[in-house]
């Protein structure tokens, strides 16, 4: 069983930056593709970014492409989401997810169904 704990959220002005971290414990996530999703009040959870287990491939939602960057440090069992040029519409709870069932998968999922372990989320609020 893996535990995923997100941190780094907070309140920031539009145009600002935040760096989210997702620390895994209980088992290594080095063989798992990892993703970030977000959910705004009253809306469904949506894909933000994901990274292959090796770190060699990433994918982003169109709404964040060019502004957000996902990375990972397998030695630290941690995944990051660097968020720049934040907009009020980025306001949401951000969740980290791991696709542990698909070890060393070459396919990065952009769907919640592709992930089997989730963190509790960290809130990001962007003021205009």
Which spans of ≥5 residues are poorly predicted at pLDDT below 50? none
Largest sheet: 7 strands, mixed
Which percent bin holds the helix content?
under 10%
Radius of gyration: 13 Å
β-sheet strand percentage: over 45%
Q: Output mean pLDDT.
A: 97
Which outline best applies? Answer: globular
Number of helices: 0
Note the gap between the termini. Answer: 40 Å
Question: Would you list the SSEs in sequence order as H and E?
Answer: EEEEEEEEEEE
Structure classification: mainly beta
Counting DSSP E segments of at least 2 residues, the number of strands comes to: 11
Looking at this protein, list some descriptive labels:
seven-stranded mixed β-sheet, 0% helix
3D architecture notes:
This protein has 128 residues and is an all-beta fold. Helices cover 0% and strands 48% of the residues. The strands form two sheets. Strands 2, 4, 5, 6, 9, 10 and 11 form a seven-stranded mixed beta sheet that branches. β7 (68-73) and β8 (78-83) form a beta hairpin.
Task: Reconstruct the topology from this structure.
Blueprint: E1 3-7, E2 10-13, E3 18-25, E4 33-39, E5 46-51, E6 58-60, E7 68-73, E8 78-83, E9 92-99, E10 117-118, E11 122-127
Parallel strand pairs: 2-11
Antiparallel strand pairs: 1-3, 3-8, 4-5, 4-9, 5-6, 7-8, 9-10, 9-11
Short structural summary:
With 128 residues, the protein is mainly β. Helices cover 0% and strands 48% of the residues. The mean pLDDT is 97.
